[in-house]
Design brief:
The protein is about 35% helix and about 15% strand. It is of the alpha/beta class and about 325 residues long. Strand 3, helix 4 and strand 4 form a beta-alpha-beta unit. The structure holds aspartic acid.
């Protein structure tokens, strides 16, 4: 496996995570200054985007980041590729290896897909979402968004709300934010929360280099009652209801869900005036968030998209061991 793979957030050394956030800060100012300015940081490299599951933000931001930094980007999706004909991930990896891409960014419905692919691909592999397993770049961009607002620090209070069972976003965020000492409370209906999280089990093994960090391995907090904690939060992260991963029977009705967990005018009134409202997107409008949320100044959903572009630019440079030339 190549040492510059990002397969899960726990495997990313803390020093590298901190450097990535720092470089994302450089990238965001560069993007804001120059709009579509080009850099040659990744000149002479090629980036393959292999998306076997739907995506707008993740795929486009990786592609744009690669292009802005001067990498040649090529897209394949399962539709129209040999994956649709039943080619195994191992064979796909070996085929692509013969074409010598400098880096592969991949999304797939299986939770272990990125690890499996990286065993057969000699270059860096970046996990852009693996089933209900991990979504490490989402966690990094969310951490970066919190950092932009001074909230990536010990004692900051964040709630992750909604369909926890099916959420790779929740899994990766929990692991990463704990390393920075952020106090995360999980909020969701019991039948959409893994049982280990309801009883407060730990987060798994510590990240390399993170063992001495504040907040390492804190107890998990979970509650089904969003209203009881809203007023004390610095940030609330809403999760999409993942209908495509449900077998059926997990949810009563969308109305019931939005009544208990949706951000609406009444709940906006309970949130502090300086709190942030986050959502990884895509949003089911009217379910996780009502129309009022999108015009609320505390809503940073689109800022998360900008953070994603910057963070993924920094990550490509990390994976390809290149310096940013701006
Ligand atoms: N876009 C995020 C993901 O790919 C969140 C979501 O789809 O709910 O996991």
């Amino acid at each position: 496996m190549h040492p510059r793979c990002l397969l899960s957030i726990t495997a990313l050394p803390q020093a590298d995570a901190e450097q990535l956030l720092l470089n994302a800060g450089r990238c965001v100012s560069w993007i804001q200054r120059g709009g579509q300015l080009k850099s040659s940081s990744l000149r002479g490299t090629s980036t393959l985007l292999l998306f076997a599951e739907n995506s707008t933000r993740t795929r486009v931001s990786f592609e744009l980041a690669g292009k802005l930094l001067g990498s040649d980007t090529i897209n394949i999706s399962s539709k129209g590729s040999s994956i649709e004909k039943g080619e195994s991930l191992r064979d796909t990896a070996m085929t692509l290896a013969a074409m010598h891409f400098s880096c592969v960014v991949m999304r797939h419905e299986a939770a272990d897909s990125a690890e499996h692919f990286a065993r057969w691909y000699p270059g860096p592999v970046l996990n852009a979402g693996a089933g209900r397993g991990e979504h490490p770049t989402q966690a990094l961009l969310d951490a970066f968004t919190l950092q932009r607002h001074g909230l990536l620090r010990p004692g900051a209070k964040l709630a992750i709300v909604g369909d926890l069972t099916h959420s790779r976003v929740a899994r990766s965020n929990l692991a990463l934010l704990a390393r920075f000492g952020v106090e995360v409370t999980l909020v969701g209906p019991p039948n959409l929360t893994p049982s280990a999280w309801r009883v407060g089990a730990g987060l798994g093994p510590p990240a390399p280099g993170a063992s001495e960090k504040a907040g390492q391995d804190p107890p998990l907090r979970w509650t089904p009652d969003l209203d009881s904690i809203l007023p004390e939060l610095d940030a609330v992260m809403l999760l999409r209801v993942q209908h495509e991963r449900m077998a059926g029977g997990e949810m009563s009705t969308q109305d019931e869900y939005s009544k208990l967990y949706g951000m609406n005018r009444r709940r906006l009134g309970m949130l502090r005036s300086d709190a942030l409202i986050m959502h990884p997107g895509p949003v089911n409008r009217g379910v996780e968030a009502g129309e009022d949320v999108f015009s609320d100044p505390r809503c940073v959903i689109n800022e998360q998209v900008e953070s994603g572009l910057a963070l993924r630019a920094a990550l490509l440079a990390w994976a390809l061991e290149r310096e940013l030339d701006f």
